[in-house]
Automatic annotation (TrEMBL):
<protein>
    <submittedName>
        <fullName>Uncharacterized protein</fullName>
    </submittedName>
</protein>
Amino acid sequence: MANKSCRLPDGSYRLQKKGYEEVHVPALKPSALDPGEVLYPIANLPKYAQPAFESYKVLNRIQSRMVKAALESDE
């Protein structure tokens, strides 16, 4: 990397390769749900949409926040 003073998060590492450098950074752990934030149950989706999520019990955080706009609006 051109910036040698770059500080990487814990658990990160660099591998020097011929002609390039690999930088591995671990994924962030998700933060706790906010008070009042609820994951939307798949059972509450319309019947036509449920087969797409058959192996899941709830939508993820982003899907849960967007479900009303996705199903009840023209946005």
